[in-house]
Specification:
single chain; about 425 residues; alpha+beta; 6-stranded mixed beta sheet; 4-stranded antiparallel beta sheet; 14 strands; globular
Length: about 425
């Protein structure tokens, strides 16, 4: 077996470092079997596949329902998706949508399939590029040769003739594995709702713009680290306490011009942050027997106009969050991950944000996780934080987020007693 040279190893490492996290495969997944939701983007995010039409408030089955009207190229891409099963009979295609500059598709790789997902997607991308070349009038179906006579015919199955024209899609794709029936249905709904969500986002851009690097005079590194040290379980071991504080210190988001100052990012209705009355929601184990009393007090305050502030990490906190969603009451949600470059709330959080009754805020730097959705609670799924198979929400992170809850709300944990 040939050994790689230092130069080859350096090139491989450089390529890996330059590949966006979302385009990397999860080493724990079996990419020959299961359900996968894939996303592919056009080069330069060119909106060449179609245009959006319809009313974001129209019913799904109405004539004016939100939709993407496909161009000729968009229709060719859709045909390439439908052709996947012709080349890979052990693969079932499910929901699919072509948006102006990207596509989403759901695939089921049967237990009898032996082909890696990457090879299947590669074939789909080749079909898309050939459809692109057809619209550009670029001949790609025959190989040229310098000798006389009729040139031999050869299809470009391996994309060996890609020098003839540009590729349609960006090299690489994003995938998320769906396991349970509930997860699969969530993916279907996500794909179907893409046009509606895009139209809503366009109609209310201020609600979905991530405001970055906000400041609060009370939100300091000293206060965040003190919240970790104040925990009775952690402070028993001084060395462990220092390690956990170091973990927090590494994740906390800093101001770009001042690395010593902490930063806060948020998305949603700014007026909620400035509300005259805010109340905290922090469920402690010591108060477990009083939960119904706490829930009643929180809900009464919200119905009276107070904005509820919480990290919504514990099951009891999420139970109250569901009720706030159900009654369409305002709240501020502290997230356990930073916001990616193109972040927007997902699931029902998308609609509560559009309706100006939901703010998501984070004090953390963004860290990519390959399994981005919290499937156990789709009603509150943000599409980024509170992940299944997620980046661990550690005890020290919870302590820091709860301290930020106190700062934003301006009340003690036991205000409801």
């Amino acid at each position: 077996m040939m050994r790689l040279t230092p130069e080859q190893i350096a090139k491989i490492r450089q390529k890996e470092a330059e590949t966006p996290d979302a385009l990397k495969r999860n080493p724990l997944n079996d990419y020959t079997e299961g359900w996968f939701h894939v996303t592919l983007n056009t080069r330069g995010e060119a909106p060449v596949l179609g245009y959006l039409a319809g009313d974001p408030d129209a019913e799904d089955e109405s004539e004016n329902a939100p939709r993407c009207v496909l161009t000729e190229l968009g229709r060719k891409v859709e045909e390439s998706w439908k052709a996947v099963t012709s080349y890979y009979p052990e693969v079932e295609i499910d929901e699919f949508i072509a948006m102006p500059e990207h596509v989403h598709g759901l695939l089921h790789l049967k237990a009898t399939n032996k082909v890696h997902l990457g090879q299947i997607i590669r074939g789909f991308m080749i079909g898309c590029t050939h459809g692109y070349w057809d619209t550009l009038g670029i001949a790609w179906g025959a190989c040229e040769h310098k000798g006389g006579g009729i040139p031999p015919v050869c299809t470009d199955r391996d994309h060996t003739l890609s020098f003839r024209g540009p590729a349609l899609m960006v090299h690489g794709y994003s995938d998320v594995e769906a396991v349970t029936d509930e997860e699969i249905e969530i993916k279907r709904q996500y794909i179907r709702n893409n046009p509606r969500k895009r139209l809503i986002t366009r109609s209310k851009p201020d609600r979905f713009r991530v405001v970055r690097n906000g400041r609060s005079k009370n939100w300091t590194l000293a206060r965040a680290l003190a919240a970790v040290a104040a925990d009775p379980w952690i402070r028993r071991d001084a060395q462990k306490c220092q390690q956990l504080q170091a973990n927090v210190n590494q994740r906390l988001k800093r101001q770009p011009e001042d690395g010593n100052a902490l930063a806060l990012d948020y998305v949603g209705n700014r007026a909620l942050l400035a509300a005259e009355r805010k109340v905290s929601l922090i469920c402690h184990r010591a108060d477990a027997d009083l939960f119904e009393q706490q829930k009643s007090a929180v809900m009464q305050a919200a119905r009276a106009g107070a904005v509820v502030v919480s990290a919504f990490v514990s099951p009891k906190e999420r139970e109250i969050m569901k009720q706030l969603m159900l009654e369409q009451l305002p709240f501020i949600e502290l997230m356990d991950n930073g916001f990616s470059e193109r972040y927007k709330p997902g699931g029902k959080a998308f609609y509560s944000t559009a309706e100006s009754r939901h703010v998501q805020m984070t004090c953390w730097t963004y860290r990519y996780n390959n399994d981005m959705l919290r499937y156990d609670d789709p009603s509150t799924n943000s599409g980024q934080a509170h992940n299944d198979d997620r980046l661990a929400i550690s005890r020290e992170m919870c302590l820091v987020m709860n301290e930020l809850v106190r700062i934003i709300s301006g009340v003690n944990d036991d205000w409801w007693k």
